[in-house]
Specification:
heterodimer; A: about 575 residues; alpha/beta; about 40% helix; B: about 350 residues; mainly alpha; two-stranded antiparallel ribbon
Chain lengths: ~575, ~350
């Protein structure tokens, strides 16, 4: 068979939708190919993936035109069960796809449905556990695992089915950076070892591009680019759809004749074009960080201990002071205690030992509802916050609980909606909003209460790079207007670019609390906490002999620094 | 706290899921046979001892405490209605109006009712605490091993022997009425025992269709997830300024009602996700012939337990038949109201 996957002029419109989710798709994938499917949220990637195992049109009903062939089978005429035996599909939210009482049962579920003999199921479970590094977790309940472990379990469950085609729909959206690297390399390794076709829908280009053969970019339901990795990168950015990895953009800005995907590749390309030996950046050329006097303490945590089950400590004697006007990143691997810590700040959790003072108020002496007047809290899943059906009602809820008048509520609602770039959507249907817009609405509905402190828990999970950038821009503006902000995030590159102070938790302890710069440069600290050094920072580290500051994280700043270096070379400033 | 599986290595944990299901049905049946606090109470405390050994008294107390109040109220309510003819009158609750008479029989039977409800609840809690939901479902589901000839023969032989001895010990005299020839009577009881054993084996081997079994399993797995989801939603509401911890119950209910919309949508979303998840893993590939990683097999403890249960069941039938089923009432009458 020449192709494993064939889309022939395929369009699909969900029942009740006005426009098609995918339109005129023509795509052919050969056996054994590893293909990246990328593009902004809402581009149609999930719909395309769901066509492959027949969920579209058998489960998600609507109008399907054209033909989807999987190993020659027309998906319209084949049952989902049969297609699922050929196509192993992993979704972006691991929690929603885990259904069994134990990890071993979860991995066995697919082979059991395929009527695999019991002895072989037992072998496949063991193999799945080994590949996913979940040995020892056999008897654990899947919904009690960390996000990374859950995703590994979901992937192992698909591996155990031995499908012919692997389809991964944003398999790393809930993972920390090192978890992302592990999961991606595991998926590609297994697919290649078994000689199977692999289609990965992902936003994380830096991590995934080195692993794939081909890139398909989608926008508004259509394929807008389909090429090899080199071909894709040589065609450059597509505004609001595809942004090249930071090192490729940097190379382009410096007119290097290369498409580097790693700091080492960039360094090689740079030194091939420019002689950097003996060339250094003088101290006065190094940009200096602005120092701001900290305000008075607004959060004071002393000796905080907390345990969910009375046995294992989720927090183990945390001491932390946050000052007014700070913008702080709370970092750490999945399960390190980040969410447990911030839930103490708005009183959702009370200390087992120690104390938490928020604006001088002891959280044990007040309710969460009272603290909510000063402490805004945005949850990871915006759906958990939405109570009403219309945007304006959702925005009015908080101010109403404060007892504000109608005019003031309207004024605050308009202001908040404008702040999150959703002006004009006051009468929009909440349920019809996309995930990115729901996240912004959740933020706006907290802003209407004008909190002095804002806590945001993983605001960018499953969002594309443009949406992530937008959310961090909003956070930055809020902070500039005086709100103290604590943000929990796995997007370390964004955290490093936007926040000055980092608090890193590990096993319920604060193991680092200080400026972001030293964290960026401490590879061991990052690795131990499942954080990956941004590629630009890695390059900075590679250029340490040239006196390049090691805490550079943005392309713009690196361009400035390298331009100065190169100018030095051209001016003959060899030292 | 949700009544869900707790890992352990107790006697109850070691039993096959099917044995525990038989235990539940047998205890329920016995509790319906008797309305005597001494008999049902003894069974109740026997089961409690086993359950406490398996999961600890604290765990049982957590799930049972709220029920004590409910069952006590129900038993007290029944005091009014449980007044058989010829009952021994003790006093009136409101003597001035001769209202609500309290009788010995009423007290005894209300106490028995309390234990009757409790033993059924404790039995099902014990099954759920000590059996992984997947095993429980496997116990209820039709599968290959249940049709193996060796298993069938072992089961039928043991149960036939048990029934044969129980019938002859309990209803020996009555058997003589059926036939004066001792050999014929023994033959009849043997055939009856064999028929009963084979019938029960057939019933046990039928099981549920796999799709129903998996649905039940998904239900068990989802309880914990939905509980956690509800907690997250309520936390989100509190964090938005909703006072969910009112002392006033009505205000608390009103505040909870605000969470119903997100809980409702989250539940619908969860149901849809489950459907997608099982379809994406070939649930409808060939459901009738699906296989199972877990395997159930009867061990020594299972046979011991089944023997005890069957003995209890048939001894109970015999005792009840002989009119000794209300031993507490008989004893009280004999000792205090002769």
């Amino acid at each position: 068979m020449e192709y494993d996957i064939e889309f022939i002029d395929v369009s699909f419109t969900y029942e009740g939708a006005e426009s098609p989710a995918i339109e005129n798709i023509d795509l052919k994938v050969r056996p054994g190919e590893v293909v990246l499917l990328t593009g902004p949220s809402g581009a149609g990637k999930t719909t395309l993936c769901s066509c492959l195992n027949g969920l579209v049109p058998h489960f998600h009903t609507g109008t399907l035109t054209g033909q989807v062939l999987v190993q020659g089978r027309d998906t319209r005429k084949t049952r989902v069960g049969v297609l699922s035996s050929l196509v192993g599909l992993v979704f972006q939210d691991p929690e929603s796809q885990l259904i069994s009482p134990t990890v071993a049962d979860e991995i066995a579920f697919g082979p059991e449905n395929l009527a695999v003999p019991r002895d072989e199921i037992v072998e496949r479970v063991q193999e799945g556990l080994r590949i996913a590094r979940l040995q020892g977790f056999e008897g654990r309940e899947p919904h009690n695992l960390s996000g990374g472990e859950q995703q590994a379990c979901a992937i192992a469950a698909i591996f155990a089915m031995y499908p012919e085609i692997y389809v991964m729909d944003e398999p790393t959206s809930n993972l920390d950076p090192l978890g992302t690297q592990h999961v991606l390399s595991m998926i590609v390794k297994v697919a290649k070892e078994r000689g199977k076709t692999l289609l990965i829908a992902e936003h994380k280009l830096e991590e995934v591009l080195p692993l794939v053969d081909r890139v398909v970019i989608m926008d508004r339901g259509q394929i807008v680019r389909d090429d090899t990795v080199e071909g894709t990168l040589s065609h450059g950015d597509i505004a609001h759809v595809f942004a090249m990895p930071s090192l490729v953009r940097l190379a382009e800005r410096l007119q290097l004749d290369a498409q580097p995907l790693s700091a080492e590749q960039f360094y090689t390309a740079l030194t091939e074009k420019h002689r950097l030996n003996g060339l250094t950046l003088s101290i006065d050329e190094r940009p200096t960080a602005e120092e701001k006097e900290p305000g008075e303490p607004v959060i004071e945590i002393r000796g905080l201990c907390h345990s969910y089950d009375g046995a294992d400590a989720a927090l183990n004697g945390v001491d932390l002071t946050i000052h007014r006007g700070e913008l702080v990143s709370i970092l750490g691997r999945n399960g390190s205690g980040k969410t447990t810590l911030v839930k103490h700040i708005n009183g959702l959790l009370k200390p087992d030992e120690g104390s938490v003072l928020v604006l001088g108020q002891d959280t044990t002496q007040t309710t969460t509802a009272q603290l909510a007047r000063q402490v805004g809290f945005c949850f990871q899943n915006p759906n958990h916050q939405m109570i009403t059906f219309v945007v304006k009602d959702e925005l009015a809820l908080g101010p109403k609980s404060l007892g504000l008048g109608k005019e003031e509520i309207e004024r605050r609602s308009l202001e908040a909606l404008e702040f999150v770039d959703m002006a004009g959507q006051m009468d929009a249907d909440v349920m019809a909003l996309g995930k990115g817009q729901k996240q912004r609405l959740a933020l706006a509905s907290v802003l209407t209460m004008k909190p002095q402190i804002l806590i945001i828990d993983e605001p960018t999970t499953g969002q594309d790079p443009q949406m992530t950038e937008d959310i961090f821009q909003i956070i930055k503006r809020l902070n500039e207007e005086g709100t103290t902000v604590l943000v929990i995030t796995h997007k370390f590159d964004y955290a490093a670019a936007y926040t000055k102070r980092a608090v890193i938790l590990a096993n319920g302890n604060v193991i680092y609390d200080g400026p972001m710069g030293p964290v960026l440069m401490d590879e061991e600290l990052l690795r131990e906490n499942s954080l990956a050094q941004p590629q630009i920072t890695r390059l900075a580290a590679r250029l340490v002999d040239q006196n390049v500051p090691g805490d550079i994280v943005t392309v713009g700043r690196m361009v400035d620094v390298l331009s100065k270096l190169i100018a030095g070379e051209q001016n003959g400033r060899h030292i | 706290m949700a009544v869900t599986y707790r890992q352990g290595e107790s006697f109850l944990h070691s039993l096959d899921a099917r044995t525990k299901l038989v235990m539940f049905f047998a205890l329920t049946f016995i509790s319906l046979l008797f309305l005597d606090p001494l008999v049902i109470g003894s069974l109740f405390f026997g089961l409690y001892a086993l359950a406490a050994n398996a999961v600890g008294r604290k765990t049982i107390a957590q799930s049972s405490k709220p029920l004590i109040v409910i069952f006590t109220m129900f038993s007290l309510y029944n005091l009014y209605w449980l007044r058989p003819e010829g009952a021994i009158h003790l006093f009136y609750v409101l003597p001035r109006w001769n209202f609500f008479p309290i009788t010995v029989e009423g007290l005894v039977r209300s106490a028995a009712l309390f234990f009757r409800f409790f033993i059924v609840v404790l039995a099902i809690h014990t099954v759920l605490y000590t059996t992984a939901s997947a095993d429980l479902v496997l116990g209820l589901t039709k599968r290959e091993s249940s049709r193996q000839l060796k298993n069938v023969l072992v089961y039928v032989s043991i149960v036939t022997a048990l029934l044969f001895f129980t019938i002859n010990l309990s209803w020996g005299e009555r058997l003589q009425n059926v036939s004066s020839n001792a050999a014929v009577a023994l033959g009849i009881s043997l055939v009856a025992s064999l028929a009963l054993a084979a019938g029960s084996q057939w019933l046990l081997s039928k099981g549920l269709p796999p799709e129903i079994g998996i649905t039940i399993s998904l239900g068990f797995s989802t309880v914990g997830i939905l509980t956690e989801q509800t907690r997250k939603i309520m936390d989100a509401q509190k964090a938005r300024g909703y006072e969910m911890e009112h002392k006033n119950a009505l205000l608390r209910i009103k505040a909870f009602a605000s969470s119903l919309i997100p809980i409702f949508f989250a539940t619908i979303e969860r149901a849809e996700n489950i459907a997608i998840a099982i379809l994406a893993r070939a649930f409808d590939f060939d459901i009738r012939n699906r296989t199972y990683r877990r395997a159930l097999s009867f061990q020594k403890n299972d046979y011991v337990m089944l023997a005890i249960l069957l003995s209890l069941l048939f001894v109970g039938l015999g005792v009840n038949y002989l009119g000794w089923g209300r031993i507490t009432e008989i004893a009280i009458r004999a000792l205090f109201f002769r």
